[in-house]
Each structure stands twice: as C-alpha cells, then as structure tokens.
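For the sake of transparency, this paper describes our internal protein records without simplification. Such a record has a labelled line for the sequence and another for the backbone structure tokens. Nothing more is needed to write down the fold, since each code stands for a local backbone conformation. For reference, a complete record is included directly beneath this paragraph.
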Amino acid sequence: MKGDLKTETESEIVAAQDRVLQSNYYTTKILNTETDSKCRLCQQFDEKIDHTISACPILAKEQYIKRHDRVSAQLHCNICKETEVQLDKKKHWYEHVPKSVETSQGGKVTILWNQQVQTDRTIPNNKPDIIIHDNEKGTCMLIDVTISGDRNVVKKEAKKFLKHKDLTIEIQCMRNVKTKVIPIIIGATGTISKSFRKYVSNIPGNNEVK
C-alpha cells in the first residue's frame, strides 16, 4: 500500500513538472471540456499548475506554511545534532519541533528559530528562518527558506541576498562577526538551482539534497 502511494505521488510530481496535471485550466483549455477553468479553492484565478503549487491565496494561509516549516525544521534538527544541542534522541527529524532559542553544550553555538534580530537601526527584513551564531568562530549564518514556483528558483535566490543585505551589514557592525546569507530555495516540484548543493553544504549537519 505504501509503495503504491509513493508511486502515485511520484507520478503526480512528474505530471506537475510536465504541466499535464488534470487541473481545471488543463481540462478546459487543453482537453476542450466545459469545465470552469478557475481554481476550485479560491475561485479567483485560473487553476494552472503554478497557481496551485505556489500562488493560491487559500493554500497560502496554511498549507504553504506547513510545507515551508517542514523544510526549515529538518534543517534546524540537523544543525542542532551537528552542534551538540541536546535533543530527544528517540524522535525523528519529522517529529522535531524547533525552539525559539537553542544553545549547544558549552554555549559555543546559539541557534535562533524564526526570531527577529534586534538592531540599532530599523531593518525591515530582520527575521530569517534560522540564525546560527558561532561564538567560538565569530561567525553568524542567516538561513532563509522558500518553496517557490519552479520557474522562480534562481530569481528567488538572488532576492534573498538583496533582502538581507542591510541585516548582514548591521550584524557585522554590531557584533563584529563575519556574517553570510544562505538561501535555501526549492521549487515546489523539486527544482533546484546549480548553486543549491553549495549552499546546503555550508549548513552544519547531515543535510542530504534528496
């Protein structure tokens, strides 16, 4: 049963990548049926693949957030393990619930989850998904995750650096630490950029691309 479900899910992903899922738009415009092409959830926009996987205002309220947080939580769990933060060893990564602040044994590393950075001047984009402050090495890593439409992956990566440029400069000035941004951008059906593996390799922990 699980094998059949996995195969079915993989088939749906491939269909989405090929833009041939049986969406209302596909059924109306390609198969020439009398079906309404509008999204069956929001009823506002055509139910195209890109709309369903990353742009529906109804799904954005909860489902897209859950999808984003699953990726962030897995990274957070692996970072904690690598930096010797004490976790419940019986739990798997998908059971991991990140805390706002975690500190490694000995206080060498501080990990912040979904926390605003307090700065001397106002910085609009001051809340990366994960911040790793290595007190021993004098470094700070800002990790920001986005699950986007497949066509926007490269564009979203570039935007992350611009988005956190001011925050990076402010942290470096305030705390005298070397700061860098790590964008983790994944297309909703699995598309990644050529730089994705390089970015993942910079994050502490056993973070497998698959």
Q: What stands out?
A: The chain has two domains: 2-60, 63-201.
